[in-house]
Design brief:
Elements (H helix, E strand, L loop, with lengths): L18 E4 L5 E6 L5 H9 L3 H8 L8 H8 L6 E8 L2 E11 L12 E8 L8 H15 L4 E6 L4 H8 L5 E6 L2 E7 L4 H23 L3 E5 L8 H12 L4 E5 L9 E2 L2 E4 L11 E4 L6 H11 L3 E4 L9 H16 L3 E3 L5 E4 L6 E4 L6 E9 L2 H13 L3 E7 L8 H10 L5 E6 L5 H12 L4 E5 L20 H10 L3 E3 L2 H13 L7 E6 L2 H13 L3 E2 L3 E2 L6 H13 L5 E6 L2 E2 L5 E2 L3 H14 L5 E5 L5 H6 L67 E2 L2 H21 L15 H12 L8 E2 L2 H9 L8 E3 L3 H11 L3 E5 L13 E5 L2 H15 L2 H4 L1 E5 L5 E10 L3 E8 L2 H6 L2 E5 L4 H9 L18 H17 L3 E11 L4 E3 L2 E5 L17
Helix pairs in contact: 6-11, 8-9, 11-12, 14-19, 15-19, 16-17, 22-23, 26-27
């Protein structure tokens, strides 16, 4: 909403303060600045507030607002006087206002940094978390305007408002003065305030999803009068699933006297339904959707599933239609799945909701599935159905204009019916938030992701996402850091999901292999080695083995303390008459089930070839209820063994010194162990038609289990760095370098400026001196001391020793002059080469440390070895900033060339402790100062003792917005 023309011209309307928020009960509301146009809305709002609430606000009976009050409460300068309103359906339901004051409580202007704040919430909307959301937003506005503290006077009886302030997590002081409670809140965000904010966000967004998944009533808008069509199909699926709530069919073309269709009450509009409607499935042409949304909003519908197409996937006009759809729905407090959605399913026995177009509804189970593609959704449902897997919930979000995978991660985090979360994503609308939510969810249950549209420029039509400059390999590494199991195909996702849902997590990488085919056992053995597992020699039971032989061998393998998991391989066995028997898979399945149920809790997977009925029998569950899972002792990890090349990124045994001792695997603190923690099986044993697929799924489980053990004891940013870091001095230097009017394109620092900036964080860069001629080179060497290096700094030759632009170990003037002549003769004139002289560093391994700010993912810390081979192979590891001590240790061990750092082929190991400290210092610098948008240290020579930074480049820019640290708000794409 824009201000009226008479609004003060000195401060423009701050439209960036507008935000859609999810409230405690899952409904949405809009927060925006109050303008002069809001006089009538304010009066109407005040008339609906109870006398008691008015008394709490004004400390006296105040039945109505005077004209002067209305003018004061609607005229703001958006600096010293600010008012925000919460609206639903365009009408106010709450307001908040601050007025800047001085130390004596009198009206003031900047630089006064305190303001008096007061709230008023309509009684009908109290208890929905409205005031808490308003406090977050008004505090962010105040900080933006230079206000550091809020003061509030609250009557002692106003317990609700006192609780809002007390629970916010800000540092506060309280006193009792003149019959009221005087509260002072410091508005600087704290760890507690951020935790409170994110906890409220999780509960609100989870509740908003729960309202969609467990409605008491559903109306299908667009049910055709004849069989067929989208709306009629959804209605049929609702009835077929046995939905436990009320169902209605809506079509404005129904005859006035038509009472039912397919046995369901028929209505021409939502407004004709006499009872509340919780969820509406919209299946009408796009041009009729706004009418349907308005009808739903006026009737109090809580959420929409919009199956209609014709939105952002159709270009610019459709994209604007999609934005308007979201704006319209949120204005009524509704959330949307879609548009262009496939629908949603909730298999809970108390709900039995199938509001989708799924031709094969899945059986109840423990897997939650989210997909952005209807076609992929159909394929996944079909694949899970064929393999006997069950789902707790299924959502196909289409263009995901509102509800996204992030919302369902919020829901699944505490959902007792979901043990494993599977997500097919084609875009990440909020990568920072996704990483944060995925890390928290993965700490209690597995999260498996397939990322479609991985290559630049291939974002699907209809998906508006932030621009990201980081490559897909970096995205994958960051997901791994967050504990996400990222796989390449939907087949791999189903394979991993089945194992994780049906089996306990392995305690380590040791695998026992047994079966009746030597060849299939060897294939499985090779696949294990390729995935970084530690297989034992396969046990060949011979083709004469009976189901009883399989049972005995499996029981023995599970009882063996030397293995953490078992892969059973099976081909048709030979009967008494010498003929191969391909049937009777049920007998073998029963034997394996018996052994697995009686043995210790270790994962079992079966690889089979042409054994009829085996997969189906193995998939038969004895229960779909989560069961207690005892915790095994994890496999000890060697701590001093030299590294070995990893066969696959994320290998279970990192090279070099091992990680911190692994903690036992448990569920969320204070809860029973969740799915994915080691323990009893649910009766299913996953079966695979190829050894490679089974082993890949098992390897993902091993890597995830290792991450869980490490995540149980999180790393930290070492405090000892604090006394060697000049944070205030660095901030002042950055302000000086950027100047009062920084160029939005950024500023590339000179080498001397970069050296000074990095030095304030304890990062020493070895100086270089220009050498525009041979005499200047000799003078520079005399100043630095021999031996020296001579190298070019021309952009096309920088860091390319392989092109001959570097001469090392020049011990005297003669050698230096000779090298200078060779360099210019070979590569060009000094003006082109821009030579420099630098003192020699101790010999070691050349590495590269970088940190960049990506607009979508945030700050990313990267590490790799220097040189063309590493760049060509993409052998670089990445972690999100701020990095912990554990992140730094894992970062240098996760590249494929890591063995070079730890004494490969008899070389002396280098000082990795110094390298880890350097990584932490760089991380701390970019985290403390978001104006530092890029750092590149290249090369960093790591010797047996210490390291030397030979080159550095730093880029500054005005700090990008940190939406992940601001008040809660829904994204607007």
């Amino acid at each position: 909403m824009q201000p009226a023309p008479e609004q003060s011209p000195h401060h423009a309307y701050p439209d960036h303060w507008e935000a859609d928020v999810v409230l405690r009960d899952g409904g949405t509301a809009r927060i925006r600045p109050i303008t002069t146009d809001d006089a009538e809305r304010l009066v109407s709002f005040y008339e609906q507030v109870s006398d008691e609430s008015k008394y709490y606000r004004f400390f006296a009976p105040y039945p109505r607002l005077s004209d002067r009050d209305v003018h004061r409460f609607t005229h703001h300068d958006y600096v010293d006087r600010v008012g925000l309103a919460v609206t639903v359906g365009g009408e106010f339901i709450a307001t908040v206002r601050y007025d800047r004051i001085d130390e004596r409580g009198r009206p003031a202007s900047a630089p006064a940094d305190q303001a008096e704040v007061a709230f008023l919430v309509q009684d009908a909307h109290q208890g929905r978390g409205v005031a808490s959301a308003l406090l977050e937003h008004i505090a962010a506005v105040a900080r933006e305007r230079g206000i550091r503290r809020f003061a509030a006077e609250v009557l002692p009886a106003n317990n609700k408002m006192i609780k809002v302030f007390r629970d916010a997590g800000y540092t506060q002081r309280r006193s009792f003065e003149d019959g009221s409670v005087h509260l002072t809140l410091d508005l600087e965000p704290t760890a507690e305030s951020l935790a409170v904010q994110r906890g409220r966000e999780q509960r609100a967004e989870a509740r908003s999803v729960q309202r969609l998944l467990a409605p008491g009533s559903v109306a299908v808008i667009g049910v055709g009068r004849t069989p067929g069509g989208v709306g009629r199909t959804v209605l049929r699926n609702l009835l077929g699933a046995g939905f436990t709530g009320r169902t209605y069919a809506v079509n404005r073309a129904f005859a006035a006297d038509q009472a039912t269709i397919d046995g369901v009450p028929a209505h021409r509009s939502i407004g004709e339904i006499d009872e509340p409607v919780d969820l509406a499935v919209v299946a009408v042409p796009a041009d009729r959707v706004p009418e349907a949304v308005a009808d739903c909003g006026e009737h109090g519908v809580q959420g929409l599933v919009v199956l209609s197409a014709g939105y952002a996937e159709w270009g610019a006009e459709g994209r604007e239609r999609q934005r308007e759809l979201v704006r319209q729905a949120r204005s009524y407090g509704m959330r949307i799945i879609g548009p262009n959605a496939f629908g949603l399913i909730n298999n809970a026995e108390t709900v039995r909701l199938n509001a989708s177009l799924a031709p094969e509804p899945p059986a109840p189970g423990r897997i939650g599935l989210f997909t952005q593609s209807g076609a992929i959704g159909i394929a996944l449902l079909s694949g899970l159905y064929r393999r006997g897997a069950g789902l707790s919930t299924f959502i196909s979000a289409g263009n995901r204009a509102d509800i996204s995978g992030n919302d369902f991660l919020q829901y699944w985090y505490e959902d007792p019916d979901t043990d494993v979360a599977l997500l097919y994503l084609e875009s990440l609308g909020n990568p920072r938030k996704f990483t944060r939510l995925a890390r928290r969810t993965a700490a209690v249950k597995p999260v498996v992701v397939v990322k479609g549209a991985r290559h630049s420029g291939s974002t699907p039509p209809g998906h508006a996402v932030p621009v990201s400059r980081i490559p897909d390999a970096t995205v994958s590494a960051l997901m791994r850091q967050a504990g996400v199991i990222r796989v390449d195909t939907v087949t791999e996702m189903v394979d991993a999901g089945l194992l994780l849902a049906d089996q306990p997590l392995p305690a380590g990488p040791r695998v026992a292999i047994l079966g009746n085919s030597e060849s299939l056992g060897l294939l499985t053995y090779d696949a294990c080695l390729a995935e970084g597992l530690r297989p034992r020699p396969p046990l060949d039971l011979t083709t004469a083995a009976t189901p009883q032989d399989f049972r005995n061998a499996l029981a023995e393998a599970l009882a063996d303390d030397g293995c953490d998991s078992v892969v059973v391989t099976a081909i048709p066995w030979v009967g008494e008459d010498g003929e191969a028997e391909s049937g009777d898979g049920e007998v073998l399945a029963a034997a394996l089930h018996t052994a697995a149920a009686a043995g210790p809790a270790k994962p079992v997977a079966v690889v089979h070839v042409e054994i009829g009925g085996l997969a189906e029998a193995l998939a038969a569950a004895t229960s779909t209820v989560a069961q207690p899972r005892p915790t095994p002792t994890p496999t000890p990890t060697p701590t001093q063994n030299p590294p070995a090349p990893a066969a696959r990124t994320g290998s279970t045994t990192p090279p070099g010194p091992g990680p911190a001792p692994a903690a036992p695997l448990t569920g969320a603190p204070g809860t029973a162990p969740l799915a994915g923690a080691p323990g009893a099986r649910n009766g299913r044993i996953p079966a695979y038609p190829a050894a490679e697929r089974a082993v890949r799924a098992l390897a993902e489980a091993v890597r995830y289990a290792q991450w869980r053990r490490q995540a149980a004891v999180p790393g930290k940013v070492p405090e000892f760095l604090d006394d060697t870091i000049d944070e205030p001095g660095t901030a002042g230097l950055i302000d000086t370098l950027l100047g009062p009017y920084p160029d939005p394109r950024g500023l590339q620092l000179t080498p001397d400026q970069a050296r000074e900036l990095l030095g304030r964080y304890g990062i020493t860069v070895r100086p270089t001196l220009p050498a525009p001629g041979p005499d200047a080179a000799v003078a520079a060497a005399a100043r630095l001391g021999y031996p020296v290096a001579l190298k070019t700094t021309a952009p096309h030759l920088r860091h390319r020793a392989d092109l001959g632009g570097v001469r090392l170990d020049l011990a005297n003037e003669t050698a230096l002059r000779r090298a200078y002549g060779e360099l210019t003769d070979l590569l060009g004139k000094p003006a082109e080469l821009q030579p420099v002289v630098q003192s020699m560093a101790p010999r070691g391994v050349d590495t590269v440390v970088r940190a960049t700010i990506d607009p979508a993912a945030g700050a990313v810390l990267s590490f790799g070895l220097a040189g063309a081979p590493s760049e060509l192979l993409g052998d670089t590891a990445h972690r999100l900033v701020p990095a912990t001590d554990r992140d730094a240790a894992e970062l240098i061990r996760s590249i494929r060339a890591a063995p070079v750092l730890f004494g490969w082929r008899g070389a002396a190991p280098v000082d990795t402790a110094s390298l880890e400290e350097l990584l932490l210092r760089v991380s701390r610098l970019v985290d403390d100062h978001p104006e530092v948008v890029s750092i590149a240290l290249e090369p960093v020579v790591v010797a047996a003792q210490g390291l030397t930074v030979l080159g550095a480049s730093v880029r500054l820019s005005p700090p990008p917005a940190r939406t992940d640290l601001g008040p809660r708000r829904l994204p607007n794409y």
